[in-house]
Amino acid sequence: MKTDVSVSTIKRLPIYLHYLRSLPKEEHATISATQIASALSFGDVQVRKDLASVSDGGKPKVGYEVKDLIARLESYLGVNEENNAVLIGAGRLGQALMHYRGFAEFGLEILAGFDNNPKLFGMQIGSKPILPFSELEAYIAAHGVVMGILTVPAHQAQTVADTLVKLGVRAIWNFSPAHIVVPDTVVVKNENLAASLAVLSKQLQQKK
Amino acid sequence: MKTDVSVSTIKRLPIYLHYLRSLPKEEHATISATQIASALSFGDVQVRKDLASVSDGGKPKVGYEVKDLIARLESYLGVNEENNAVLIGAGRLGQALMHYRGFAEFGLEILAGFDNNPKLFGMQIGSKPILPFSELEAYIAAHGVVMGILTVPAHQAQTVADTLVKLGVRAIWNFSPAHIVVPDTVVVKNENLAASLAVLSKQLQQKK
DNA sequence: TAGATTGTTAATCGATTAACAATC
DNA sequence: TAGATTGTTAATCGATTAACAATC
Question: Which one of A72, A160, A173, B97 has the fewest CB atoms closer than 10 angstroms to its CB?
Answer without folding.
Answer: A72
